C-alpha cells in the first residue's frame, strides 16, 4: 500500500500502489485531495457497496455530500447495456452532484460566503465550475477553482420517472448552490462532447435552462479547447497548467443566452416536427409509466405521488406537462394545437381499454404479494395495481396478538365471531366481496367497538384504498359510484337514518355493473365492485325491499358490550405497529374458510344465524306477520283471498288486519303474494307454490294459526317436541332461515301470476320437494343418461362440510334441466368442493356439468382456463378470436378462443 509523507493518516490503507499511480502519477492529481476522496475496493466490498455483483476491483470515488461512483479496473457490460460503462453507481441510490472533500478545511462547502471569495469571478459574480466526474472536480478544486462534478452530462437534473408530472429538476446539491446565488460555468469534455454532439448540447441546454431559473448567470465553456489539448478539464490543466485554463478557457466562457442563439436555426427547422412521429417517440419512452384509461377517460401514471408499484390518476395538465417537457428539449417554437394533437395521438397509442388489476395479488410498500401462496414479487407496471397497503410486508414478524385479544374481548369471548371478522377482512383485502356477495353490518350502541373495528380495517387498507359514503348519496347521486372505482372497501355511516330504496347497494354487493360516470364527463362504461362493503350503525338497516335480495347479502353482527368511558383507550394508535401482522393473520386463513365464514355464516356460527332471524323480523313486516300468524304444514293449501274476507281463513285479509293492528303500511295484494312466496321459498327454504283451482288462488305448505294452537313459530321458534308424531308432520324444515342460499327475487317480482292449475299442482310441488326420494328411487335414477338429472340426495349427515356438499348437489340436481343455471352454480364453486361433489356423478354426468359451465363462462384477462387439459392463465383477450395464454408469471402464445374452457379441476 502506498502512503504519502505529507499526510499519512489520510492516505494509509486507502489506495493500492496501482490506484495511487493512476490517480497521482498518470492523472497528475493532488495526492492530499485524492487521499480523502478515493479508496481502493476489492470485488467483495464493491459488490456490497453497489448492491449487485461487481466483476472487477476498482476505485470508489465519493465527495463530502455522500454520493459516489465506482470506477472498475476492467469495465464490464451487463445484458441490458450496449457498452461497458467506465463508472457505476449503487443500485436504487438517487444520484446527486459530487463535492470534492477538502483535505484540510471541513467547512469548504459549508461556509458559502468564504467559498464565494474563492470562486472564479465573471463581471464581479462568483461562479462555480460544473464538469463531469469527481476526478475533474478534484483537479479544479485543488488548483483554487471550486468545481462541482456530475455523474454524467444528464445527471445534473433529476430523472423524469421520479416526478408524477414527468418533469426534471436540479439535483439537490445544484439547487442548494443555485439558491445561494452562485453563478455557473459549464465545462464538459471536448471531442464528441463538444458542440457537434446533439445529445450533449441538449443536456447542456436543459441544465443551463434550469440553473437560469434561479436568476444567476450561466456560462458555457464547453468547446473552448480541442481534444488535442486534453479531453477533460483535468487533462487540459495537467498539460497546460491552471493559469492557462483560467485565461484561455474560463475567460472565454460564453453567456448561455448568447451561446444558445447558434441553435435558433435548428429550432426553426424543428417547427416542422411531425405530431405523429413525436407522439410515437413519447409513447415508446413512456409506455411503462403512462396510460390512457379508456373507460375512465383519464390519464394514469405509474408510481404517481411516489407510491411504489401503483398506478394513479393524474390531471390532464400533468400529461400535457410531460409532452411540454419533452418538446422543450427539442424546440422552443410550438403551438398549443401541436401539444393537443400529440396528446390525442397518445391516447390511441397508450390506451388501456379494460383496466384489469392482476387478480390474486396485492401491493405493499416493499413488494407485490401473491395472496394464495404469500410469495413476494418485485413491483412491476404490468400488475396494473391501483392501490397499495400503507406498510411493508417485511414488518409482519411483530405479530398481532394485542389486536386478536381485543377482537375476542369485543366479541364477548366468541371465537367463531372473531373468525367471521377475520374472514371479512380477508375478503376486503383480497377483494372477494363481489364474489361472495355479502356486506358486513355491525350493529350496536356507541362505545361497543364497532367503530374501532372499522378504523382498524381502514388503517389496514390506507386512506386512498377505501371510500366513505352515505346511503342517500349512494342511491340518489348518479356520480357517487364512480368514486368507488378501484377501492377495496366502502364504508357506509348513516344507514340507521335511511329507509328508502337500496337498489344501488344491492348492485354494489351483488357483483353487478355500476355506473362509471363522472360529473362533466360523458359516461363510457361501467365496472363491478369487487371489494367489501362495511356498515356500522346503531340500528339495523331498514328498506322498502322485503325480498331476499338484500337479506341474503347482509352479514349482521351485534356489538352489545359497552366499554365505560373511563376505560376506553386510543386503540387505533396502539394497533398501528401490528398492521403487517394483522395482514399476515388474515391472509393465512384458507380461501375455503373465508368463503364459508362469509358466505355460509348462519351454518357455521349459529348465534349469528339467530341474530339474522331477528334482523329479518325487524326489517321485514311481512316476515314478522308470517312468524306470528302462520305455521308450516306440508299438506296445507291456504287461499289468498281479498281484503274484507275472513282473516281466520284467508291470507291477505289476515295480513291486512295484522298490519293495521301493528301500525304498518299495507302492500297491494299482487305484491303481497309475490313477496310472501319469495320469503317462503328463497329465505326460509319452504317449497311453497302459488296454485289456482276453481275456488281461487292458494299458497301451499302454510296455514293460518288459529286461537289456541301452539305450533312452532314459522321463523323464530325451533321444534318444541321433535319426537311427537304431530309435530313431526308439521315440523319446520328450516329452523334457522337460510338467508345465504337463495334464488334471486326477480322471478317473483316480475311474475304476477306464478299460477298452475290444480291438476298440475302436485307435479309442481313434487318438483320443489327435497329430501324425500327413496334409496330405491336413487339407484334407478343414477343409471340415467348424462342429459337426465341424477337422483336427489338426502341431507341427513351432521357433518357441516358434507351438509354443504349435499345442499350444493341438491341445487345442481334441481337445476339440471336448466343448463345455464347449472353452469352458474358450477362456476360459483371452488375447485376443492367441486372435485368432492363430482365424485358422486358418473363420467357422462360430469361431462354434462362441464358443458353447462362452459355455456355460461365469460372469458376475461387473468382468468384460469383449461387448454387441452392443462391449466393456463389468460393474459390478453379482446374482440377477436385469438387469446394470449401463458403461465402465472409469463405470457405465452395466442390460441383460438374455441379451444379454451373454464378450469374446473375435474
UniProtKB/TrEMBL annotation:
Alphabetic keyword roster: ATP-binding, Nucleotide-binding
UniProt superkingdom: Bacteria
SF3 helicase domain location: 416-572
InterPro entries the UniProt entry points to: DUF3854, Helicase_SF3_DNA-vir, NrS-1_pol-like_helicase, P-loop_NTPase, Phage/plasmid_primase_P4_C
Region annotation (Disordered) ranges: 765-809
Bias-annotated ranges (Polar residues): 765-776, 783-809
Pfam families attached to this UniProt entry: D5_N, DUF3854, DUF5906
This protein's record includes keyword Metal-binding: no
Protein name, per record: DUF3854 domain-containing protein
Source organism per UniProt: Nostoc parmelioides FACHB-3921
Amino acid at each position: 500500500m502506498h502512503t504519502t509523507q505529507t499526510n499519512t493518516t489520510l492516505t494509509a490503507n486507502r489506495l493500492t500502489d496501482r490506484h495511487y499511480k493512476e490517480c497521482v502519477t498518470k492523472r497528475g492529481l493532488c495526492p492530499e485531495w485524492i487521499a480523502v476522496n478515493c479508496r481502493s475496493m476489492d470485488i467483495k466490498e464493491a459488490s456490497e457497496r453497489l448492491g449487485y455483483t461487481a466483476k472487477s476491483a476498482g476505485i470508489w470515488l465519493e465527495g463530502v455530500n455522500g454520493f459516489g461512483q465506482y470506477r472498475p479496473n476492467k469495465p464490464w457490460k451487463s445484458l441490458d447495456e450496449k457498452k461497458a460503462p467506465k463508472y457505476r453507481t449503487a443500485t436504487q441510490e438517487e444520484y446527486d452532484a459530487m463535492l470534492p472533500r477538502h483535505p484540510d478545511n471541513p467547512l469548504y462547502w459549508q461556509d458559502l460566503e468564504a467559498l464565494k471569495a474563492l470562486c472564479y469571478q465573471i463581471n464581479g459574480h462568483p461562479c462555480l465550475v460544473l464538469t463531469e466526474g469527481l476526478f475533474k472536480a478534484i483537479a479544479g478544486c485543488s488548483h483554487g477553482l471550486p468545481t462541482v462534478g456530475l455523474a454524467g452530462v444528464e445527471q445534473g437534473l433529476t430523472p423524469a420517472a421520479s416526478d408524477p408530472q414527468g418533469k426534471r429538476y436540479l439535483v439537490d446539491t445544484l439547487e442548494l448552490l443555485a439558491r445561494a446565488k452562485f453563478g455557473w460555468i459549464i465545462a464538459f469534455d471536448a471531442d464528441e462532447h463538444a458542440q457537434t454532439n446533439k445529445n450533449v448540447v441538449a443536456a447542456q441546454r436543459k441544465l443551463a435552462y434550469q440553473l437560469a431559473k434561479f436568476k444567476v448567470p450561466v456560462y458555457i465553456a464547453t468547446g473552448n479547447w480541442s481534444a488535442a489539448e486534453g479531453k477533460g478539464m483535468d487533462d487540459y490543466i495537467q498539460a497546460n497548467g491552471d493559469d492557462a485554463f483560467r485565461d484561455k478557457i474560463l475567460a472565454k466562457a460564453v453567456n448561455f443566452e448568447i451561446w444558445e442563439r447558434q441553435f435558433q436555426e435548428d429550432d426553426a427547422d424543428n417547427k416542422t416536427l411531425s405530431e405523429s412521429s413525436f407522439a410515437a417517440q413519447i409513447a415508446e419512452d413512456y409506455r411503462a409509466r403512462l396510460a390512457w384509461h379508456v373507460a375512465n377517460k383519464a390519464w394514469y401514471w405509474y408510481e404517481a405521488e411516489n407510491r411504489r408499484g401503483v398506478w394513479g390518476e393524474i390531471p390532464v395538465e400533468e400529461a400535457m406537462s410531460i409532452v411540454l417537457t419533452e418538446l422543450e428539449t427539442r424546440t422552443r417554437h410550438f403551438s398549443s394545437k401541436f401539444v393537443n394533437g400529440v396528446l390525442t395521438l397518445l391516447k390511441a397509442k397508450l390506451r388501456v381499454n379494460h383496466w384489469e388489476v392482476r387478480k390474486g395479488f396485492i401491493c405493499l410498500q416493499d413488494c407485490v404479494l401473491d395472496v394464495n401462496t404469500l410469495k413476494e414479487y418485485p413491483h412491476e407496471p404490468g400488475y396494473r395495481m391501483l392501490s397499495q397497503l400503507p406498510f411493508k410486508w417485511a414488518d409482519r414478524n411483530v405479530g398481532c396478538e394485542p389486536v386478536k385479544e381485543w377482537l375476542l374481548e369485543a366479541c364477548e369471548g366468541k371465537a367463531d365471531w372473531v373468525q367471521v371478522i377475520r374472514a371479512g377482512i380477508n375478503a376486503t383485502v383480497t377483494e372477494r366481496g363481489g364474489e361472495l356477495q355479502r356486506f358486513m353490518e355491525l350493529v350496536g350502541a356507541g362505545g361497543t367497538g364497532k367503530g374501532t373495528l372499522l378504523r382498524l380495517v381502514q388503517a389496514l387498507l390506507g386512506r386512498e384504498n377505501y371510500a366513505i359514503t352515505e346511503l342517500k348519496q349512494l342511491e340518489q347521486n348518479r356520480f357517487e359510484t364512480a368514486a368507488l372505482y378501484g377501492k377495496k372497501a366502502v364504508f357506509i355511516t348513516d344507514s340507521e337514518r335511511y329507509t328508502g330504496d337500496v337498489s344501488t347497494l344491492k348492485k354494489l354487493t351483488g357483483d353487478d355493473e355500476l355506473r362509471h360516470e363522472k360529473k362533466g364527463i360523458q359516461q363510457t362504461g361501467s365496472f363491478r365492485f369487487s371489494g367489501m362493503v362495511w356498515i356500522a350503525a346503531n340500528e339495523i338497516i331498514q328498506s322498502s325491499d322485503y325480498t331476499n335480495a338484500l337479506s341474503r347479502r347482509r352479514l349482521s353482527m351485534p356489538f352489545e358490550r359497552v366499554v365505560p368511558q373511563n376505560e376506553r383507550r386510543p386503540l387505533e394508535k396502539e394497533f398501528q405497529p401490528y398492521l403487517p401482522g394483522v395482514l399476515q393473520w388474515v391472509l393465512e386463513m384458507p380461501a375455503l374458510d373465508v368463503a364459508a365464514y362469509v358466505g355460509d355464516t348462519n351454518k357455521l356460527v349459529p348465534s349469528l344465524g339467530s341474530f339474522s332471524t331477528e334482523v329479518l323480523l325487524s326489517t321485514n313486516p311481512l316476515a314478522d306477520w308470517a312468524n306470528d300468524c302462520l305455521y308450516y304444514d306440508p299438506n296445507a293449501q291456504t287461499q289468498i283471498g281479498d281484503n274484507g274476507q275472513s282473516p281466520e281463513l284467508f291470507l291477505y285479509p289476515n295480513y291486512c288486519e295484522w298490519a293495521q293492528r301493528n301500525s304498518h303500511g299495507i302492500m297491494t295484494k299482487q305484491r303481497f303474494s309475490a313477496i310472501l312466496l319469495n320469503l317462503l321459498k328463497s329465505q326460509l327454504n319452504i317449497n311453497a307454490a302459488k296454485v289456482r283451482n276453481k275456488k281461487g288462488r292458494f299458497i301451499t305448505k302454510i296455514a293460518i294459526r288459529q286461537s289456541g294452537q301452539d305450533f312452532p313459530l314459522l321463523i323464530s321458534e325451533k321444534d318444541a317436541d321433535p319426537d311427537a308424531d304431530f309435530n313431526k308432520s308439521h315440523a319446520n324444515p328450516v329452523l334457522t332461515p337460510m338467508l345465504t342460499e337463495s334464488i334471486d327475487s326477480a322471478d317473483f317480482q316480475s311474475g304476477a301470476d306464478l299460477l298452475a292449475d290444480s291438476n298440475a299442482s302436485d307435479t309442481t310441488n313434487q318438483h320443489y320437494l327435497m329430501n324425500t326420494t327413496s334409496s330405491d328411487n336413487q339407484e334407478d335414477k343414477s343409471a340415467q343418461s348424462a342429459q337426465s338429472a341424477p337422483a336427489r340426495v338426502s341431507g341427513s349427515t351432521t357433518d357441516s362440510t358434507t351438509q354443504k356438499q349435499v345442499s350444493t348437489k341438491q341445487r345442481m340436481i334441481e337445476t339440471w334441466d336448466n343448463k345455464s343455471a347449472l353452469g352458474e352454480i358450477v362456476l360459483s364453486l371452488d375447485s376443492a368442493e367441486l372435485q368432492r361433489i363430482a365424485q358422486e356423478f358418473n363420467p357422462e354426468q360430469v361431462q354434462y356439468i362441464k358443458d353447462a359451465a362452459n355455456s355460461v363462462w365469460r372469458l376475461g384477462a387473468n382468468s384460469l382456463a383449461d387448454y387441452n387439459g392443462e391449466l393456463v392463465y389468460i393474459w390478453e383477450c379482446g374482440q377477436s378470436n385469438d387469446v394470449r395464454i401463458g403461465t402465472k408469471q409469463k405470457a405465452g402464445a395466442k390460441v383460438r378462443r374455441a379451444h379454451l374452457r373454464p378450469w374446473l379441476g375435474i
